[in-house]
């Protein structure tokens, strides 16, 4: 059961993104008020804002954040330090690093973040930014409203101020979201899914999947999800814990879950892009409206989605691969219906576990008797 | 529509003439609001880049001026039609190279242009000849940035130039009536009080008469880097404030660096700041505002060219533009290179910043939107080609955006002073556009109103636009929420539809301990035994761990593994798969049935009971229909009983399936990668060759990544160590070199032992037990003495002095 903990975020405008770090102990939020905030979880479980930066507050050049709405914020793997990337309406993406040892900041319980780089290649609003999975090194992908996905790499992971633009992938459609395939398997080439919120009347497929080709050293389009023709607001690959196939969640006018099974290499001609068997395994319009965000739990077994109805819905598959709603959470923490409240109304759950053990043992012994 | 008779205190001194003129002007503009405008979003190609545009008062014609273009276009419903080319004559004159153009709002035939060579030209369209040029004023020395007609007086023209002068022309005369310059305001006194050089005598400014406004408490001048304090202190003056003397205690003046009393020395002739914009007030007949490159804004009375009425620093860097609010409110919007648009209330004694809009590029033009009290349009002179319309109450997100131009937009004008839907613009890309407000893209609408992120422990962070959350939960208000004040605030202004000062509610949904958080993962990882004991024991141990954590399916699996691999008959590796396959076909149904039987009472809750019944059914069907069984639905892992699903949710782990059922496809379907890797390690050679090397590696990397997320470094290292995959086991082999210096001679220890080659003493001795420390060595950074972690900890309980006896008060963090 969930307990809602309301946080006075004190952003002056809409919050567009929240993001947990690798260890789940820090959280970053970004807002249209052009600021980014970092929250740390205290021992007691409270979230404290330990850093907040914004152009109007500080005139110091290195602290200048964006001068437009900040759409997305994302954490790098902690191996590279405490690093955040953000992207903004002001056509830039930025990389931030926390500096340790600033004593007078520490005293106030504040940490100090500096801007390491500004990526200014886009000529339009940068709508999403994502760090690549760790095994690929320190890489960053951005996508922008002009339909270009850019992939940057920091050749020297110790120097966060140098990023080189490695790839520019043209998607032809205004991009709204990207997701790296997190699989660390050598059998899976680096892969990026791109969603578009292009609302132009000519209905085109709004989700494209690009795969890195070792031979050409370029990203090439591997798949287009032809069935998704409505604007896509968010896209997320599920964490791949040893699975041979990929699961992709899409937030469009409904929640959709696709599986992408790579067709065995032997069957495809070598060198070309991987072929996938694509199945839609779930499609839910329970939000009754636009779905804005999708997010997977750490094991890739539960999908959370949020929509215009102000609710978060949790989706989970059973062993038959039937996806069903397993919980609804209201934005203010109040449960929508009895289902998600079961845990609360049933305090006997805790003690019931030993019972389970006992009966299990008893039963198995009875089986032996029989 | 008569003008609101609200005369605010600051303007009460205006003459009756001014008020009459205002009324007259008001009538004029009302008269213009005849039929509704029609048209569409359209553009036309110009021959050359435009620098400025201006609309005729009939809202049917627009003039476009640029370095090599000066034309009048008629705005028709479907297109722009070129009406008149004012660039006549064979050789192009520099007088025609226009930086700005303005069309008189009372006289349809009267235009004025500002030329880049400093000439101000007026044009009379009523002239019969082809050349419509009327008058030529060559008084400015450099580019004239701006020309402005008086809103009600037909003959008064104002210009502002790069040379720092503003000139007022009476079109009935050949030369300017008066000249205004920023210099006039500079104090001539040469006495300073600089906060940085206290030895300077606290001489105070004697030029009391320079304080124009007795009510003015502070005037800011931004000096250049070369202006220095006269008291020979090295600090450049970047900010000067002039204060009325008798009331200001001297002590306060010393507070801030470079807050000075008085002024730069004397008038700096020819160096005055360039004028970027001049605008007659619509409210006060005699008043105009001017903006400067140094960030200042001045307010002048046209009858008093000797000094300005008021001056304040509005922006950091040049102020490129300003615009008076069209309604009678004394609001002035200014835009600067610092990317900001500020709205000032000029009716109070000190200009008060009422709004500040942060744009994404320097602001070149700002124009209030007609009939929309809080809207203004801006465009930039660099980088950004779009035109934005902002609601000043929502300063971060533009309300509308026009993206037609491919190069910098240089001029914007609302087509009619009472129509908010038509905007005209000219651009360096040589196009003239008419934008319809309804065709604008609205970034606010496209902006994502929600943020959602799944945490490591199953907690969810959710930020949502408050209105989304509020609409349905209005019945249940709860304390400490800012939503309701905002909700009410919105209702205060019903006259104007306003989407609301949007804000988001942020909350974290935390999973209650024990109900499906990821703690099972941590516990399992820490308690599993993976090596060092016989297989049977490992399986038993792990089965016990799993059972204690309530993960019965997993426990079953371990038990099964023990049965399969530790039974003597099945040990042979060659026919392993085969025999396992057989084993499963006889063993599993039994197992499955007892499993399901026991599950229901164990979970206790009614829903569970029902669910399990259903499940039994479905599993029975499965049993009958095929031999492929999935024994390992792992329902402890689901969110305990808060999961309302009417089935047993499965995190089907992989590998055992492969072993039992010989169906690799099922193996990795839903990864309990922990199980897969643990089994892989425990079974070792027995299964390794049946699984693809790459797949194994994939499992390992996934599991290690997960362990590291939970900071289970020791487990992670154990897994790395026990893995047989080369790619994995090398993970903890990288950068493992440790360089040690001798604690006595401070030189690097070259040999491998514990004795330093150079001083032949044992390095890193424990100060407590006097033995060589071979494991964890802690030392005080102050005196560099230390020793075994345990010993030092024990020692410090009793004493805070160094155990080595050096007398240092050791500090350990």
Please name the defining characteristics of this protein.
heterodimer, A: 370 residues, mainly beta, 4-stranded antiparallel β-sheet, disordered C terminus, B: 813 residues, alpha+beta, 18 helices, 24% strand, disordered N terminus
Describe the protein in words.
Chain A: Residues 334-348, 355-370 have a biased composition (Low complexity). Chain A: This is Nucleoporin SEH1. Chain A: Keywords: Cell cycle, Cell division, Centromere, Chromosome partition, Kinetochore, Lysosome, Mitosis, mRNA transport, Nuclear pore complex, Nucleus, Protein transport, Repeat, Translocation, Transport, WD repeat. Chain A: InterPro entries: Sec13/Seh1_fam (IPR037363), WD40/YVTN_repeat-like_dom_sf (IPR015943), WD40_PAC1 (IPR020472), WD40_repeat_dom_sf (IPR036322), WD40_rpt (IPR001680). Chain A: WD repeats lie at residues 8-40, 63-97, 284-316. With 370 residues, chain A is mostly beta strands. Chain A has helices spanning 103-107, 342-345, 349-369; strands at 2-7, 15-20, 26-31, 36-41, 47-53, 70-75, 83-88, 93-99, 112-119, 126-131, 139-144, 148-153, 164-170, 175-180, 191-196, 207-213, 218-225, 234-237, 246-251, 255-262, 276-284, 291-296, 302-307, 311-317, 323-330. In chain A, the strands form 6 sheets. Chain A has a 4-stranded antiparallel sheet with strand order 2-3-4-5, with no helix packed on it. A 4-stranded antiparallel sheet of chain A has the order 6-7-8-9, with no helix packed on it. The longest helix of chain A has 21 residues, at 349-369. The relative contact order of chain A is 0.08. In chain B, a hairpin with a 3-residue loop joins strand 11 and strand 12 (165-170). In chain B, the strands form 10 sheets. In chain B, strands 1-30-29-28 form a 4-stranded antiparallel sheet, with no helix packed on it. A 4-stranded antiparallel sheet of chain B has the order 2-3-4-5, with no helix packed on it. Helix content of chain B is 24%, strand content 24%. The radius of gyration of chain B is 41 Å and the shape is elongated. Chain B is an alpha+beta fold. Chains A and B meet through strand 1, strand 2, strand 3, strand 22 and strand 23 of A and strand 31, strand 32, helix 4, strand 33 and helix 9 of B.
């Amino acid at each position: 059961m969930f307990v809602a903990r309301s946080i006075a975020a004190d952003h002056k405008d809409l919050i567009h993104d929240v993001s947990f770090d690798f260890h789940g102990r820090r959280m970053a939020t970004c807002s249209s008020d052009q600021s980014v905030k970092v929250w740390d979880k205290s021992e007691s479980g409270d979230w404290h804002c330990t850093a907040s930066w914004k152009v109007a507050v500080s005139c110091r050049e290195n602290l200048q954040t964006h001068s437009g709405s900040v759409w997305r914020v994302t954490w790098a793997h902690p191996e590279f330090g405490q690093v955040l990337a953000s992207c903004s309406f002001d056509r830039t993406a930025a990389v931030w690093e926390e500096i340790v040892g600033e004593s007078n900041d520490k005293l106030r319980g504040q940490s100090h973040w500096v801007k390491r780089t500004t990526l200014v290649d886009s000529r339009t609003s940068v709508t999403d930014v994502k760090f690549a999975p760790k095994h690929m090194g320190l890489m960053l992908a951005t996508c922008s409203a002009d339909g270009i996905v850019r992939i940057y790499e920091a050749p020297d992971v110790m120097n966060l101020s140098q990023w080189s633009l490695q790839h520019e992938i043209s998607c032809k459609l205004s991009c709204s979201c990207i997701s790296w395939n997190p699989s660390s398997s050598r059998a899976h080439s680096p892969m990026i899914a791109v969603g578009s919120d292009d609302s132009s009347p000519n209905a085109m497929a709004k989700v494209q999947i690009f795969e890195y080709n070792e031979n050409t050293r370029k990203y090439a389009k591997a798949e287009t999800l032809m069935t998704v023709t409505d604007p896509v607001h968010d896209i997320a690959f599920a964490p791949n814990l040893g699975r041979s196939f990929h699961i992709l969640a899409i937030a469009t006018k409904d929640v959709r879950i696709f599986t992408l099974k790579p067709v065995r290499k032997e069957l495809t001609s070598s060198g070309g892009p991987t072929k996938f068997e694509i199945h839609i395994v779930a499609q839910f319009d329970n939000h009754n409206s636009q779905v804005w965000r999708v997010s997977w739990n750490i094991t890739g077994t539960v999908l959370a989605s949020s929509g215009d109805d102000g609710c978060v819905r949790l989706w989970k598959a059973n062993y038959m691969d039937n996806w069903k709603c397993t919980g609804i959470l209201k934005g203010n923490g109040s449960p929508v219906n009895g289902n998600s409240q079961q845990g609360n109304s049933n305090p006997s759950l805790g003690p019931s576990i030993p019972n389970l053990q006992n009966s299990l043992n008893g039963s198995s012994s009875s089986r032996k008797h029989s | 529509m008569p003008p609101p008779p609200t005369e605010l205190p600051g303007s009460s001194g205006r003459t009756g003439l001014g008020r009459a003129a205002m009324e007259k002007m008001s009538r004029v503009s009302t008269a213009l609001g005849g039929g509704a405008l029609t048209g569409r979003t359209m553009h036309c190609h110009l021959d050359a880049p435009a620098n400025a545009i201006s609309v005729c008062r009939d809202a049917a014609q627009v003039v476009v001026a640029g370095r090599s273009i000066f034309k009048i276009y008629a705005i028709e419903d479907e297109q722009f039609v070129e009406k008149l080319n004012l660039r006549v004559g064979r050789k192009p004159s520099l007088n025609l190279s226009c930086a700005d153009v303005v069309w008189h709002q009372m006289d349809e035939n009267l235009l004025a242009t500002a030329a880049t060579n400093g000439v101000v030209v007026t044009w009379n369209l009523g002239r019969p000849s082809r050349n419509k040029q009327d008058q030529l004023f060559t008084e400015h020395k450099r580019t004239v940035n701006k020309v402005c007609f008086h809103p009600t007086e037909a003959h008064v023209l104002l210009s502002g130039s790069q040379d720092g002068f503003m000139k007022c022309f009476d079109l009935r005369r050949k030369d300017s009536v008066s000249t205004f310059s920023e210099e006039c305001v500079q104090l001539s006194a040469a006495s300073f009080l600089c906060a940085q050089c206290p030895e300077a005598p606290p001489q105070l400014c004697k030029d009391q008469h320079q304080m124009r406004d007795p009510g003015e408490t502070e005037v800011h001048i931004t000096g250049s880097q070369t202006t220095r304090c006269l008291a020979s202190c090295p600090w450049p003056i970047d900010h000067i404030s002039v204060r009325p003397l008798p009331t200001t205690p001297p002590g306060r003046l010393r507070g801030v660096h470079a807050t000075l009393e008085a002024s730069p020395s004397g008038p700096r002739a020819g160096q005055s700041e360039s004028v970027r914009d001049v605008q007659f007030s619509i409210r006060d007949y005699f008043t105009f505002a001017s903006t400067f490159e140094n960030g200042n804004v001045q307010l002048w009375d046209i009858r008093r060219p000797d000094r300005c009425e008021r001056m304040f620093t509005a922006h950091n860097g040049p102020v490129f533009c300003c615009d008076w609010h069209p309604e009678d409110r004394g609001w002035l919007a200014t835009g600067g290179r610092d990317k900001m648009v500020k709205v000032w209330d000029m009716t109070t004694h000190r200009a008060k910043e009422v709004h500040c809009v942060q744009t994404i590029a320097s602001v070149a033009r700002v124009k209030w939107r007609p009939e929309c009290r809080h809207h203004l349009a801006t465009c930039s002179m660099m980088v950004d080609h779009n035109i934005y319309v902002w609601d000043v109450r929502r300063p971060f997100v533009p309300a509308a955006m026009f993206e037609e131009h491919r190069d910098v937009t240089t001029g914007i004008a609302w087509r009619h002073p009472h129509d908010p839907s038509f905007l005209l613009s000219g651009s360096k890309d040589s196009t003239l556009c008419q934008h319809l407000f309804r065709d604008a893209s609205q970034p606010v609408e496209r902006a994502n109103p929600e943020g959602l992120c799944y945490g490591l422990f199953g907690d969810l962070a959710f930020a949502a636009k408050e209105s989304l959350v509020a609409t349905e939960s209005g019945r249940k208000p709860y304390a400490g929420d800012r939503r309701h004040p905002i909700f009410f605030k919105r209702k205060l202004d019903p006259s104007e539809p306003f989407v609301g000062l949007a804000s988001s509610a942020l909350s974290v949904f935390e999973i209650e301990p024990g109900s499906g958080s990821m703690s099972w993962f941590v516990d399992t990882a820490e308690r599993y035994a993976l090596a060092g004991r016989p297989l049977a024991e490992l399986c038993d141990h792990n089965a016990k761990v799993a059972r204690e954590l309530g993960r019965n399916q997993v426990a079953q699996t371990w038990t099964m593994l023990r049965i399969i691999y530790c039974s003597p008959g099945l040990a042979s590796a060659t026919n392993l798969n085969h025999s396992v396959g057989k084993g499963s076909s006889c063993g599993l149904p039994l197992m499955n049935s007892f499993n399901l039987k026991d599950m229901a009472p164990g979970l206790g809750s009614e829903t569970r009971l029902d669910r399990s019944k259903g499940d039994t059914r479905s599993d029975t069907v499965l049993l009958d229909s095929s031999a492929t069984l999935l024994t390992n639905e792992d329902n402890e892992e689901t969110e305990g009983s808060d999961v309302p699903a009417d089935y047993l949710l499965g995190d089907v782990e992989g590998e055992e399936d492969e072993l039992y059922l010989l169906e690799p496809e099922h193996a990795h379907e839903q990864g309990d990668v922990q199980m897969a890797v643990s089994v892989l390690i425990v079974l070792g050679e027995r299964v390794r060759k049946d699984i693809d090397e790459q797949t194994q590696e994939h499992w390992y990397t996934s599991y290690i990544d997960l362990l590291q997320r939970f900071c289970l470094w020791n487990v992670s290292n154990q897994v790395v160590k026990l893995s047989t995959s080369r790619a994995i086991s090398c993970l903890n082999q990288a950068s493992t070199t440790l360089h040690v210096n001798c604690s006595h001679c401070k030189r690097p220890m070259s040999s491998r032992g514990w004795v330093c080659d150079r001083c032949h003493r044992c390095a890193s001795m424990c100060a407590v037990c006097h033995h060589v420390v071979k494991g964890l060595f802690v030392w005080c950074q102050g005196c560099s003495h230390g020793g075994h972690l345990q010993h030092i900890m024990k020692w410090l309980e009793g004493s805070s002095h160094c155990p080595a006896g050096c007398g240092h008060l050791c500090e350990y963090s």
